[in-house]
Design goal:
The chain has 293 residues and is an alpha/beta fold. The chain contains nine helices and ten strands. The protein has an eight-stranded parallel beta barrel with strand order 1-2-3-4-5-6-7-10, surrounded by six helices. A two-stranded antiparallel ribbon has the order 8-9. The two termini are 25 Å apart. Pfam families: AP_endonuc_2.
Amino acid sequence: MSLRFGYGLNGFTDHRLSDALAVLADLGYDGVALTLDHAHLDPFAPDLAARTAAVAALLARHELGVVVETGARYVLDPRRKHEPTLVSDDGRERRIDLLHRAIRVAADLGSSAVSFWSGIAPAGAGPGECWARVEEGVESLLPVAESRGVDLALEPEPGMFVERIADVLELRRRLGSPDRLRLTIDVGHLRCTEDADPAACVLGAADLVANVQIDDMRRGVHEHLPFGEGEVDFPPVLAALSAIDFRGLVAVELPRHPHAAPALAAASLDFLRDAERRAQVDRPHRRPQEVAR
């Protein structure tokens, strides 16, 4: 099975959306990861439904798939990066509102998942309080996601309260393992924070994986790097994604490189296709010791 490669539009913020989609389609990408932000689809500007329909038409014209991302830096607060979050002391309802909007947009665009994260734990909030806040927020979103047929793909993020795959599994346990609560894997994050190697993490997570971001990274350093500049061994990761029969987009995540987007997108796709060819030589079988659901 050939993987479907996409590119994160948070790495194309110097381009108009129509131009970015044309460039990526011409390069041969299968889809895009669309971050809801002022650059391409502002979730808080007027006429969201009409603007979403226009984006859907652009995607259809270029035959591109899409997954919706919600990691915009200043979409909720122009002064505080990524705030408020699901674990913030105040303003959590604004994050919930953004995620409600993202679910509706995802359904209208044909995205099977909305990717999101927990946020950084405030200094005065202990683990018990943070778990309660995340549980409350996600629990309120699950009926909306179910009604729209969209998965909530929680991303473990270095430095955030939900930082590792084990934290996502713990949240699922606390909420009764809801079908719609699944996992976003960022391959670079696996190298940065997880104890197991990235390919083993993919095989262990198996059917919980709803969304994949891919980039290079070094152990212990949360910096999204172009392929070949970090420590990730990519052919085993792509082989693992193939082994678990992952059907979503595997989207390049380079949000700090918009200045070089067209050239970097071209080089990234060449790299991934070459890594996929090498992965076919040694495709693993799914391991029996998969994570607990």
